[in-house]
Amino acid sequence: MSDTVTPMMAQYLEVKSQHPDALLFYRMGDFYELFFDDAVAAAAALDIALTKRGKHQGEDIAMCGVPHHASEGYLLTLIRKGFRVAIAEQMESPEEAKKRGYKSVVRREVVRLVTPGTLTEDSLLDARRHNFLAAYAEIRDAGALAWADISTGQVRVMPCTRARLGPELARLAPREVLVADPMSEGLRPLIEDMGAALTALAPASFDSQAAERRLCDLYAVQTLDGFGQFARPERAALGALVDYLDLTQRGKLPLLQPPTVESADAAVQIDAATRRNLELTQALSGGRDGSLLAAIDRTVTAAGARLLERRLSAPARKLDVAQARQACVTFLHGQSRLCADLRQALKAVPDLDRALSRLALDRGGPRDLGAVRQALVQAGALAGLLNVPDLPDLLADARAALLGHDALLDALDAALVAEPPLLARDGGFIAPGHDPDLDDARRLRDEGRSVIAAMQADYARETGIQALKIKHNNVLGYFIEVTSTHAQKMLAAPLSDRFIHRQTTANQVRFATVELSEIETRILNAGGRALEIEKRLFERLRAQVLDAAAPLAQAARALAEIDLASALADLARAGDWCAPKLDDSRAFAVDGGRHPVVEAALARAGSPFIANDCDLSADQGAAIWLLTGPNMAGKSTFLRQNALITILAQMGAWVPARAAQIGMVSQVFSRVGASDDLARGRSTFMVEMVETAAILHQADDRALVILDEIGRGTATYDGLSIAWATLEHLHDVNRTRALFATHYHEMTALSDRLDGVQNATVAVKEWEGDVVFLHEVRRGAADRSYGVQVAKLAGLPAPVIARAREVLAALEDGARGASPKALIDDLPLFSAVQAPAPAPAKPLPVLDALAEVNPDTLSPREALDVVYRLKGMASDG
């Protein structure tokens, strides 16, 4: 191959130079092809063949490719592996390119930049989760965080300091975060720790004045005042989102709803460590299974599932909001038949939000129009079901949003077939009878022979020549043929004015008519014409849908609200949950509380969950339970279940308990369990201290704090002193409601000194040297940890257990008065004396005898004799 750069490769290099940080999918016919380093990286990431095509600067040009029709799967793999992809499409046909010159290259342009936060295709997204793109802006000492899901159109913004950025990113779990280039490296560790891709933009993208102009242009308004008051950092963050979407979507902006300002104190504050410890939306092992979200999700629509995750991630801090949501659940809990009917109707509701988004981005097809139609059909059915008295306000508002779409529904229903295809280019989605021109084109396309046969019959009648035929060949096309005998009649007036002589053969004469020539052209072009008419009708319907985008978005939100309320009502009924009493007091009383995830796991195993009470109510000051008891007794479960009950209550759900009263909580903090953070050089103890420090610095008097085994990662006296001081700080300074689990029994004395501290313990029972866990939380203090018994249950060798009992007894004696020197002298902990090795196992005659028995050949009498013989041998041995 020549080393000369071909025109096509020159075009590729020019397009690639405009997107140096993205893999370039360069459209060539039915394939997207990649070259040079892009090909090497993509082939490795996708595990596809790497080939070569020509040379450049003396080196082979690496090349790989993926089929256009299957590109979405490859895109998903690349995005998940951290790549960005620029899509360069052919903007003209090869025939059009040749009009500019024989060697002209088909014009190609990048039509889209695919990044983690800008996905819209169903195959690239999790239908039940949001795909947020976020932007963080700072102006002087103020900051703001904006986020959007372009697949649903949701846009939000809130004031956010850099200190609050971590917790908010943990709540939203965005796929991509935009920041100004100068601060990108400083924020990179935080953002990437959250599992998001960081994209640095030029500072001009965050200019607040330019941002206001972008936003006004986007929403076609003169001012943003109609949407709310936006501070400069908020405008900057929103403007950066719009600027980036304009860049990645190449001018085809998604259908974005007007931005909503979220108050920083509208939701319960839950930091990243607490979310992780409580496994709200993701289990510690990774994935959704085992999380609270998985345990409570009974939604039947994608939008309802996304709303559930939003509510669970951000429980309401405002009493009226939480009560309004709970009222919907309570109403449907009491209307079991209505609830069941609603859930059945909801199962047929498609994802209206994402269908609208694809249509707005011109990536939608007839199936998305069908989804809008189906959603409106079900919206009408649901509105009919909800036509009942005494609807709670939220459900009444939702019902109202489902009405008023009759005109659009009629238009879609009249135009579309029952099951439209995915792509408009496939055709066949407009119903017969909707458009006369389309019906005519289809008739010509599908029934050309019958149309010609009908014309032949008309001509035969008109001329009186029954032997007249209409035929076709590649030279003349369609023509009328008669015998020489009848030709004279055709050539004479008045027929000669209508029938045009074309050709004479030995025995036949051929004619044409203007009408026949027109029909021939129409038949030949009928397929293409039918498709063009359908595409035109598709654009008309798409425009009608987008004109109604605002009320359709409201209907989509209403469908999600109804789905979530009915799902939570169904969950409460099936799980025997209760409606918690919510108020603005400092009450916290749970009667018979249960851990929803653990209870579900035990139910699958056929085991019951032991319910427990918890009362942290306090009119003023702190209310702290100091919880003692052995490992494996259920302390961590008890701590977590009360935090989860609080979160469920304030998101508007019923809770797993016999009864509950929750005074609104402002923050939930959890430090239960820890592990090394080797990437940052932090030990388990260091991680524990960092998380504890965050709690002590931030917790206010409306917070709920759960702490487990503070100080266990260091020496006994160090750990005890840290735990002691931490509990005092929570009591005296934070004045919070808290559950504090510990193995330091010395701390139980604090209940006598601190008014807000009460002792509680997880009950156990000793039986023949072993411990039986009762999983019951009672008032009072444990006097021991039962660590040796737990070690025995874990399977430590018997000599180790025996030795541990000796050491424990000696240490306890020492604690009761012996000096450390005497203790070491009496108990040679550090001597060379080794625990006796277990004796080798002796052969057992009973086992040898048993090995000789073949149970398949024994009669019942013989089997009984064997049992007696073995029993006798065991007694002798």
Automatic annotation (TrEMBL):
The keyword Iron does not apply. Keywords: ATP-binding, DNA damage, DNA repair, DNA-binding, Nucleotide-binding. One of its GO terms (biological process) is mismatch repair. GO terms for molecular function: ATP binding; ATP-dependent DNA damage sensor activity; damaged DNA binding; mismatched DNA binding. It comes from the Bacteria. Signal peptide: none annotated. GO terms for cellular component: cytosol. ATP binds at G629, P630, N631, M632, A633, G634, K635, S636. Residues 703-719 form the DNA mismatch repair proteins mutS family domain. SMART domains: MUTSac, MUTSd. HAMAP family: MutS (MF_00096). NCBIfam families: mutS1, PRK05399.1. This protein is involved in the repair of mismatches in DNA. It is possible that it carries out the mismatch recognition step. This protein has a weak ATPase activity. Belongs to the DNA mismatch repair MutS family. This is DNA mismatch repair protein MutS. It comes from Roseinatronobacter ekhonensis.
